[in-house]
Design brief:
Structural class: alpha+beta
Strand order of the largest sheet: 1-2-3
Number of helices: 5
Low-confidence stretches: 86-97, 99-106
CATH topology of the largest domain: Transferase(Phosphotransferase), domain 1
Largest sheet: 3 strands, antiparallel
Number of domains: 2
CATH superfamily of the largest domain: Transferase(Phosphotransferase) domain 1
InterPro entries: Kinase-like_dom_sf, Prot_kinase_dom, Protein_kinase_ATP_BS
Protein name: Interleukin-1 receptor-associated kinase 4
Shape: elongated
Radius of gyration: 19 Å
Organism: Nothobranchius rachovii
Mean pLDDT: 74
CATH class of the largest domain: Mainly Alpha
Strand content: 15-25%
CATH architecture of the largest domain: Orthogonal Bundle
Distance between the termini: 28 Å
GO molecular function, one term: ATP binding
Number of strands: 9
Keywords: ATP-binding, Kinase, Nucleotide-binding, Receptor, Transferase
Order of helices and strands: EEEHEEEEEHEHHH
Length: about 210
Amino acid sequence: MRITGNFDDRSISNGGRRLGVGGFGTVYKGFLNVIAVAVKKLNPVEDMPLDKLKVQFDQEIQTLKVDVKSANILLDENLVAKISDFGLTRASAKHTSTTMMTERIVGTRAYMAPEALRGEVTPKSDVFSFGVVLLEILSGLAPANENKEPQLLMEIRYDIDDEDEELTLEDFVDKKMSDWELSQVETIYCLASNCLHDRKNRRPVIKQ
């Protein structure tokens, strides 16, 4: 709350911090370690019917983050994750295409979907990157390591899913995690694996 001036609801032009209002809440300007950031304060949804909530979600601006990675995900004092660094972000209205074609590869390669490496970026590319982040959380490993095989963290799923391999999912769980349940690990891995599907149309959408 301090970084937004206690959610100062006056507009920027009137000396406050409010940047604008969307379907899910109000966006405020804040400063985190002298870096200007945008913070969204979500509206309460406890009493909102699920169908109305879904409609609001579907009407939101569609965003291509392009550079989803663990280094761009910050935790606040309540350990709530906040995505930061929107320098490569592209946004579009709901009714327009969110596919972006580019000849210049942007983003961090260890997190990039196959189609993104070819210059085609869609919201499903962000889903793929999120899958790599989930594997990082699960394993405690870096997304890439030139001194290990496989070099790319995303490729450990081939070892895990190969029945002929001696390694199992449990072998890849972060050794620093002393208290975990296999069912929870399997749930996270299943989601990560779905996000990392080579075919973008087989990946879940981010709102799922």
